[in-house]
Amino acid sequence: xxxxxxxxxxxxxxxxxxxxxxxxxxxxxxxxxxxxxxxxxxxxxxxxxxxxxxxxxxxxxxxxxxxxxxxxxxxxxxxxxxxxxxxxxxxxxxxxxxxxxxxxxxxxxxxxxxxxxxxxxxxxxxxxxxxxxxxxxxxxxxxxxxxxxxxxxxxxxxxxxxxxxxxxxxxxxxxxxxxxxxxxxxxxxxxxxxxxxxxxxxxxxxxxxxxxxxxxxxxx
Amino acid sequence: xxxxxxxxxxxxxxxxxxxxxxxxxxxxxxxxxxxxxxxxxxxxxxxxxxxxx
Lengths: 220, 53
Description:
Chain A is mainly alpha-helical. Helix content of chain A is 72%, strand content 0%.
């Protein structure tokens, strides 16, 4: 009885003051686990900002902040989820400072992401990437965390500091929007349209070149 | 004779999900830039824990 009472009291004390019971990882272990999250941090950062070079800067900032705060990391929790929260906060801070002005860097995306592209993939990955970048930031991070990152709705909600129901709603709306865009019911970034326009402009300029050469030849 | 009973919408969603994971994995499986190795090697020289994040 007394023992139970003591345990209960200790439990309440633990809940009331969790800072005191955290036994931090030693630096080497922390660094090892932090290093293991880098690829996931890069994928999440890229999904947020759409520029691989900016994403890498964001991940570096995140790693520095995580390292500085390593005493507060609970070893029994997910390092990936913890660092995603830090990364997201870094991103929001930098967004507020207008560091990210371009939502999508197609050239970098092509170079960075084609390594894993599969010719037999049922959907063109470039179309999926473009459609992803057309989503609002809330929906994009939601679908990436749950649909690609493997987080549960609860974990994703915690990372994004929102209710679980909100997260479910964002994921659902993101899925619907992606399906609509990839089925052609909604515009994706108009890459194909832009390519067609570029080709048309190229044809026009080519014709003008030929005409001007003809005029020059006539003048001579 | 029974044909496929899969809901086309579910199949479509599954394909989108698969492609999303490919996009994500395309980053996670790409080689890390050298800057991260450099940063990891520098971490030990950076201050004591407890700073704000």
